[in-house]
Amino acid sequence: MDRIVKLLRAPRLALAVIGFLAAWTATGAWAPWTQPGGPAALAWARAAGLAHPFTAWPFLAAVALLFASTLACTWGRRSRILAVRRGQLPPAALRLPPRAADVRAFLVEQGYRGEGELLTRFAPALWGGWLLHVGLLTLIAAVLVQQAFSDSGVFDLTEGETARLSAPGTVSGRERGPFAPAALPDVEVRLDHFDPYLHQPGYAPDRLSRLTVTVAGQAPRAEVIDRAAGIRAGDAEIFQAIPAGLELTLDIPGMGLRAVRLQGEGPRRAAASLSDPAGAPARFVVESERDLDSPQGTGRLRIALEAGGARLALEPGLAFPFGAAPARLVAVGRWGRFTWTRTPGLSGVFAGFALVLAGCALLAFPAGVARLGRPGEGAAAVVFTVRGAAAVAAEWERAGPPA
Amino acid sequence: MQSILFWSATTLYALATVAYFAWASFGRERGAAAGGALLGLALLPHAGSLALRWAEVGHGPYNTRYEVVSADTFLLVAVFLVAAALARGLRGLGVLVAPAALLLMGWAVTNFGLKREVPIIFKSWWLVLHIGFAKLFFATILLAAFSAGAYLVKVRNPAALPRLPSAERLDLYGHQLTLVSFLFLGVMIVAGAIWAQQSWGRYWGWDPMETSALVTWIVFGIVLHFRVLHRWSGRRMAWLTFVALAFAVVTIFVVAIAVPTIHNSYMVGS
Questions:
Q1: Can you give the pLDDT at residue A22?
Q2: Rg (CA), chain A
Q3: With contact defined as beta carbons under 8 Å apart, do B192 and B220 qualify?
Q4: Contact between chains at B211 and A26 (C-beta distance less than 8 A)
């Protein structure tokens, strides 16, 4: 057991693990196949786990090893700091040889303070490294817990449409941690108004939605969201996402009102495929006068139905043949995408961050403990400093001739 | 007026460079004092030009290359003057800070005319922390690298640059500035994570810039471990400080310019 702890505490192991994580992270993040729309991962990359770099076993194993190494490094460090604070300085502490100079005055000049034989400099900062390591342990543990319970997905809404997240087919792209609840959030969302290019003063045009959100057992409430901040809905949060597009509202006999969300196929063309009630494939195509994402608007739209090798122009409000009975194009609108998340344990992640930063802040202070030399010790003072020992030694050498 | 103030600041940075070079080359003691004073004086018109741009475009200096690089330069000089006030030994580093400020202003002015509205996600107070600490991070790691450079000069020739402190002290300054920049980078990453959580519901998305910042933070961790665990100092640590600076420059400038990322807008240049 001691050998394992000794191995985990070895500086070389810590550096190797950190170096591996840096190289793996850089490779994983910048590899062409991890970019949106990038090529497929190469065979060797798939074999090494670099196709999904941040869920692959080498990455997870390195994080686990980093946790173990950090824990081993932190273990026992507290007692060593307390011993230094009491003046029990480690053998590596700097021994200032006797010189014809006042060592106490020299140490005071170096920032050390104290009345007796023990002088300290930024003593609380002795805990900086320890706190940083405890913060890292907290952060790693909290991220693992948070990821295990996290849950997220997306849903699309058209103006005037209401969706219950827990209803089948509403949510797509769900990413659920292994311990997240299987049930979807019991929340109903209605998109009252959607403007994909609203020009808020001082900001570039962007999406803004007015929603009516109803959490199970609570009264409906009106909310406004843009991409700057989400809203809370029960145990979930809802955010405005970027994807948006044109939508055709169809009244189809036997199917009722259906929202057909079109996907962009070019700057001025969008389309969606849909089978008619008889099961025959059909395709709705919209072509615009200006770009589909032009903040000035799309201009005139040409709407067409492509089915059975024929192309039929459609007009809002008019009926058209669709399966056995005619359907009607009710309206042309916009759809917007929303994401929802459940992230329990997030406060633990940020607490870990806070501890890491507190440790970093303390490390910036050059903490130290100095003990004046005792008779027969052969040193004017023994100085322990977390950094800058060489500067202290050099400046003591210049303080006066050897005694 | 904005242009006049910008060029006034740039001229003062140029004069400070000349004064510091006179001190370093010809040993004119007044040169360093004049250089420091000119740097301090330059901050006034520089602040004025930034404030006027802020008033004109309605947002702080965090969009387009001109605004970002000009504000980075302002903070570099301000941080240097504060650090030099706290540690007098750092004053001589003005010989590197002044020309760096001049070059950065030259880079900034190439996009002086470009003005853009910021994305809606900038409607957050976390932005101020995130971007503010990114600028402080750049300023402190640049000063750390300058300390390391001065250390290498002093080690080779202890009589060189007599106004600078001993090589050991420069080594220590370099280490402390690296530690401070490690903290600032950490705050930048955390503020960005909280901001992302607020805007998108996820605190980490492995965006190239996020990843680059994390890798840089890890590299800084490695550099600091070499110092603390392996007692590396002196020349080796000076070169490692340059490595840390290279990672910082890649993160702050190269990734934002060359790699498709959600952070492209802040260095957009055309």
A1: 85
A2: 33
A3: no
A4: yes
